Amino acid sequence: METNTYRCKACGGQPFSEGKLDGYAALRPVNTSFSSGSPLIFTVCTQCGEIASIKATKPEKFK
User: Fold this and answer.
1) CB–CB of 40/57 below 8 Å?
2) What is the pTM of this model?
């Protein structure tokens, strides 16, 4: 998924794409060892690799 709503703070570029980090690297609540956590979506500058945004796909896991 390509998105052009960002401007890179490192290189000034605008082409961005999204990538997903999940599995064992999922974000989990600090005080809960049994939670399956949430995959993370990264918005990445396709020119230099700078991360513009990190978003949990399941924010309800942290309530």
Assistant:
1) yes
2) 0.76
Nearest-angstrom CA–CA distance, 39 and 17: 16
Q: Which of 42, 2, 47 is nearest to 25 (CA)?
A: 42
Q: Mind listing the pLDDT tens digit for each residue in 49-61?
A: 999 999 999 898 8
d(Cα 8, Cα 43) in Å, to the nearest integer?
10
Q: CB burial class (10 A; 0-12, 13-18, 19+) of residue 49?
A: exposed
25 C-beta neighbours (distance < 10 Å), count: 10
Q: Name beta bridge partners: 17.
A: 2, 44
